[in-house]
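Troubleshooting entry. Yesterday's outputs looked truncated, so today I'm pasting the complete records for two proteins to confirm everything comes through intact. If either block looks cut off, that's the bug. Protein one:
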Amino acid sequence: MPLPDTDQIVHFYNHLTTSIVPGPNNVSYFLALFLLPTSLLIPPSILSHRVLYSLFLPIIYALQLRSWRQMGGIDVISVNLTLWSLTLLALKDPRRDFRRIHTIKRQPSPKFISDRKNPEDEIQSETLEEPYPQTLRPRISWVGTLVLSIRLTNWKLNDPAHDAHLPPPNTASRRTFALYAFRQIITGYLILDLTSSYAHLDPYFHSPLPISSPLPSLSPSFFNPSSPLPVILQIILPRLLRTTILASQIYALIPCLFHLPVLPAIGLNYLFPTLLPDEWSPHTWPSFFGPFSAVSRHGLKGLWGQWWHQMSRQVVSTPGRSLADALGLENGGREGKRGWQGWARWALVTVSAFGFSGIVHMGLIPPKPLNTGMGAMEMRLWIGAFFWVQVLGFGLEVLGAQAWGYFFPGIGTERRAMRMGVLVWVIAWLCVSLPLIVPPFRELGYWRVWPMPVSVVQGVVGRGWVMWA
């Protein structure tokens, strides 16, 4: 079989980035990526903070706009870069305020290592803080790490709200973290396989049917109005099942995407530690997800602010915090003690976080989708709407919490019944809001293609193991 020539490769890549997955396909895109770290390499003795962002930020934005015009739309990476450039160049001053946290691991004396344990599990660690380097060589590493550290979990920002809540350094060994990552990948793979097997059979995921339409696994008579099943359950059960399928697929996909690249990286760190040192190795990173118990304790706040991954938190919420700081709005303490300034600040940060999150995820839609009856902009608005309505959900949750505290003072969410009630509220809200993302993904045919090459579920039921044949 002859190898494809250059023109065929270019044609395929252009087709991929315009009709399948939006991505970089022009020089302006890469110039904008290059300018952010380049600008931060210039020390403040040469360009002050104000001069730096006044000079580089307009150029980066001009390149981004030109890139989006050439692409025919936006993508996730470039929108993130636009917001990240605003944060690092204008809203924050990393060269003055940021400190990079180094976790130094030390091997204890052999006499303190138990013969029954892996010596790697006995490694101890200490942390050091590194300000903006004065010389170029360490500055390149410092700036490069900063630009890639969008969670800022290994950085102090001279901001008490951030610095006081930094996660502890991950002291897991390579072996322990690799086993954990492998379990996450296998679990996600099986969940994705099982849910895809159902979605492949449910016409709701392939045709523009209402989410309350009858389930394919149940006979039509089951949903007949004269049947003993109450009408409310006829509406709730299909919505609950389909939302659960959708949420499970998203949850399964994210850990797979996060953990698949870490296994070869850990191996590279083990074999060539000078090429990939420990502080760059994934086994030293904080966990991507927080404790799920935060959802039942804090509702949507716990779902989005503690349990779900925080990859874009600094990117999307910093503009709201900076605006609140500029307006002089104080935090105001706990929710029950907040004054009007505290609530105004909370509203700005919440609107910023979910407003920009919606715009970022609009970049999932290609500019020229194939074989769809829905335009690219309409699809993007459906995606964005899911994030934007979360602001309403947060508002309802706050009003509910305030009303509960007024009528039932002293009864918090530590009680099991209360935590179950909070969890039911979160599930109910997701059943209302999460289906907003179905129309664009359905139009793009996401559920027509099996997400993995080999299906355990299909193989077990006798429909064949290989899906990508």
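Protein two, checking that the full record survives here as well:
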Amino acid sequence: MHKVFCGHLSYDLTRDDLKSFFKNAANVTLPMSSGKNRGFAFIEFKNQEDYDRALAQNGANLKGRRITVSAFKEHTKKKEQFQETSVKKYIIIHKYC
């Protein structure tokens, strides 16, 4: 699966609006808060061709807003830093006890 991040969305946009705009989307995740979307979404595509078409929509107009579409990248650095810090604290605590 190929995933894109879509930002600067209108707050009244629905999941169905995104499915219509990105016709070949395999999955659309639209985070909500207090009954409205949070202004961004994650959209998955099954193949590279549909993914590339979605990326080409960067800057397109959707419900009166110029949206951003970019490749989604997992943020694992913070998780790795947390694990490394936890191990260091454990070693220091046990060294001096």
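Both blocks look complete. Sanity check on protein two: DSSP finds three helices and eight strands in the chain.
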